[in-house]
Amino acid sequence: MSSEEFEKLHEIYRSLYEDIKLMPERALKCQGEERKRLVRTFDERHGEAEEVLQGMEEELRVAPSSYRNAMSTKLRLYRRDLGKLQRDMKNPVLGLGSSFQPSEGSLHGIYSSQNKQSTHLQSQRTLLLQGTESLNNASQSIERSQRIAAETEQIGTDIITELGEQREQLDRTRNRLVNTGENLSKSRKVLRAMSRRLMTNKLLLGIIILMELAILGAVIYLKFFRK
């Protein structure tokens, strides 16, 4: 809230005031149903103007101190002018300043009608204020939901980015594991080949030893035992 909102309400009030400021004078020149319609219209516009002034009072309480004095002066002048219009409007309704003098029963009917209209307008004002408060609460709730949605979206984006980085790391690790597996497979093949060669060499060595032993035995036999 700021003085800017106060100025908006000020423009609304000026528009309403322009609508009703000539109504007391017009009421002096009309009679009967036309006057009643004019009174009802005045009461409605007057009620709307009162609501606008209440809104201006609320703005005054939270306005910056540098604006508060000027705003307070405007508000006092507006209330004075509005009260004067209401007093002037009651004169033609009561017949003051005109040749029309209503009877006591007529006065009672006018007061009763005014009270009903005032009660109806007050009820409408209450409903309007409640509706405005509900809209404000709904707007604040929507704003909070939007902030939460934006924060959630940002968190989701961060998580997706982090998951992408982790996937790249996993891909690199998998590639390293594949290369390691290939190297291990090659190593196993080399070891198997070396093992086969070792067994072949052992077998050949055994055959050579047996052959040497057979030759040695034959030589001994021929030299010492054969006559």
UniProtKB/TrEMBL annotation:
SUPFAM superfamilies noted in UniProt: SNARE fusion complex (SSF58038), t-snare proteins (SSF47661)
Alphabetical UniProt keywords: Coiled coil, Membrane, Protein transport, Transmembrane, Transmembrane helix, Transport
GO BP term (any one): vesicle fusion with Golgi apparatus
Keyword Transmembrane helix: yes
Subcellular location: Membrane
Pfam families for the chain: V-SNARE (PF05008), V-SNARE_C (PF12352)
Recorded family membership: Belongs to the VTI1 family.
Protein name: t-SNARE coiled-coil homology domain-containing protein
